Amino acid sequence: MISVVAILEVNDAAAFxxxxxxxxxxxxxxxxxxxxxxxxxxxxxxxxEVHCLEFPDAETFxxxxxxxxxxxxxxxxxxxIHSTQIYVSSKHKxx
Length: 95
Description:
Layout: E1 2-10, H1 13-29, E2 33-42, E3 47-55, H2 58-65, H3 68-71, H4 74-80, E4 81-89
Antiparallel strand pairs: 1-3, 1-4, 2-3
Helix pairs in contact: 1-4
């Protein structure tokens, strides 16, 4: 299993909600899971939202990212999201 943290700078909340509802359905079709999503701050640009995701493996995550249905949402995504940072790891810690 891999864990993915996505930090999203949202600049259009309505477009973001529309994009996310479709993107999450596509994510689930690839065996992915939205573990958690939360807002951390609001600025002049918009809202910062953090998503914690899980996928069975890196290949499944790449298949999701390259899915033609997800890619077709590119214009909506560009309207909704100003910038994205992604962190991916298969190294899980137990403390």
